[in-house]
Design brief:
The protein has 169 residues and is α+β, with helices and mostly antiparallel strands. The chain has helices spanning 52-66, 86-90, 114-119, 146-152, and strands spanning 2-8, 11-19, 37-45, 72-78, 94-99, 104-107, 110-113, 130-132, 137-143. The protein has two domains: 2-101 and 136-155, Gcn5-related N-acetyltransferase (GNAT) (Aminopeptidase, 3-Layer(aba) Sandwich), CATH 3.40.630; 102-135, no CATH class. Strand 6 (104-107) and strand 7 (110-113) form a beta hairpin. The radius of gyration is 17 Å and the shape is globular. The relative contact order is 0.17.
Length: 169
């Protein structure tokens, strides 16, 4: 995991997090090794003046400098949060379509992802818990070298402009 603290006028305003992500096969569709790909997993900013796209751009430059073997960054815009990925669109990321969501289960008074059931000793196949389907997410890619850009450019689709479905609560 790479954690980048964000400061404006010597004041901490948040962070940007990169890591391998929840999907252990994230890198496989792009014929990469795990160490060549990561996910931008969180942009958490508070009371900032700079545009988010500019902050992400600086974070990407820092990441590229400190991780020279990295070739591809993947991020997802969560339609359940009414996000389209406007910050990625403004940063010229490559939109490649929808990533299927996994269901959530109501366990111990809170909603958890399907992958967390196993760590709690339960199975989604015979789960006794209430289940809900989430909306799918929008997938965006940022190549770190020209060869990777050439490889993923044919996957580019037009940017989504509106969320088709209502948020499931």
């Amino acid at each position: 995991m790479v954690k980048i603290g964000v400061y404006e006028d010597k004041r901490f305003i948040g962070c940007i997090l990169f890591n391998y992500g929840a999907n252990p096969n994230l890198y496989k569709p792009y014929n990469l090794k795990q160490i060549e790909c990561c996910e931008l997993t969180r942009v958490a900013l508070n009371n900032h003046k700079s545009e988010v796209t500019k902050i992400i751009s600086i974070a990407l430059k820092m990441l590229k400098k400190q991780s020279p073997g990295l070739r591809l960054i993947i991020s997802f815009a969560d339609s359940n949060q009414k996000h389209l990925g406007i910050i990625y669109q403004a940063g010229n990321w490559i939109y490649t379509g929808i990533a299927k969501s996994t269901p959530q289960y109501f366990v111990g008074g809170k909603w958890i992802h399907q992958r967390q059931l196993g760590s709690l000793g339960y199975s989604s196949k015979n789960s006794i818990f209430t289940k809900r389907k989430l909306l799918d997410k929008y997938r965006y890619l940022m190549p770190f070298d020209n060869e990777m850009r050439k490889q993923i450019e044919p996957l580019r689709k037009p940017y989504p402009k509106k969320i088709e479905n209502a948020v499931i609560v």
